[in-house]
């Protein structure tokens, strides 16, 4: 596979959310989803600062991305109103793990083009199974079914922001948990990187559980067990270095 998203050991986010929507700069549009993103919090203030519409507009103008917290977890966020700029961003960030939000109207054109050119971006490099990390947000799902059917292994369609937000949290948590296990299976285990991803998975599962009012006991118990294992190995390694 050509797309094997690198996994750095440091805390710098290597995960990118790309958001394509012609109305994204409208302050009244997708308010709940926007509130899920926050700028880097002040170390002296544990309450994150919400991502402002002005910052989104600046992103649209610069065609760049900024570091954000998505429900408490570090990501990069890039926002676009046109398909050409969006696809350029995909090409420039093939080494990152991408989660893609798109409107139905733009997704109808963008998704086929992206999956034709960059299908590896949404393919697990180990299992070669598709990632369902394309989230289509629209007002009427029926209008999207005809074109989306061909790409059903890659996309999920929503007409409620809360449902999309919850699904993304669950998918991201599952992804980070899987990545952490693979890092621990390396020889030698990549404990620092695994620890970051286990922490992120824990945060996302906790928030998903609270939002959807569903228990995540099995997943959270597994994460806690793995975190204890990682922390013990990191302590042992530190003692050996002393």
Could you explain the architecture of this structure?
- With 242 residues, the chain is α/β, with parallel strands linked by helices.
- The chain folds into two domains: 15-159, Rossmann fold, CATH 3.40.50; 171-236.
- 49% of the residues lie in helices and 17% in strands.
- The protein contains eight helices and eight strands.
- It has helices at residues 31-35, 53-62, 83-92, 104-118, 142-148, 161-185, 191-212, 217-241, and strands at residues 15-20, 37-39, 49-50, 65-70, 73-80, 97-103, 134-137, 155-158.
- An eight-stranded mixed β-sheet has the order 3-2-4-5-1-6-7-8, with helices on both faces.
- The protein is globular and about 55 Å long.
- Residues 6-10 and 41-45 have low confidence and may be disordered.
CATH topology of the largest domain: Rossmann fold
Strand content: 15-25%
The CATH class of the largest domain: Alpha Beta
Q: Mean pLDDT, rounded to whole units?
A: 85
Overall spatial form: globular
Structural class: alpha/beta
DSSP helical segment count = 8
Q: Could you give the distance between the termini?
A: 41 Å
CATH architect. name of the largest domain: 3-Layer(aba) Sandwich
Placed side by side, the strands forming the largest sheet appear as: 3-2-4-5-1-6-7-8
Total strands: the figure is: 8
Q: How many separate domains make up the residues?
A: 2
Task: Name some characteristics of this structure.
globular; 8 helices; 8 strands; Rossmann fold; single chain; 242 residues; alpha/beta; 2 domains; eight-stranded mixed β-sheet
Topology:
Blueprint: E1 15-20, H1 31-35, E2 37-39, E3 49-50, H2 53-62, E4 65-70, E5 73-80, H3 83-92, E6 97-103, H4 104-118, E7 134-137, H5 142-148, E8 155-158, H6 161-185, H7 191-212, H8 217-241
Helix pairs in contact: 3-4, 6-7, 7-8
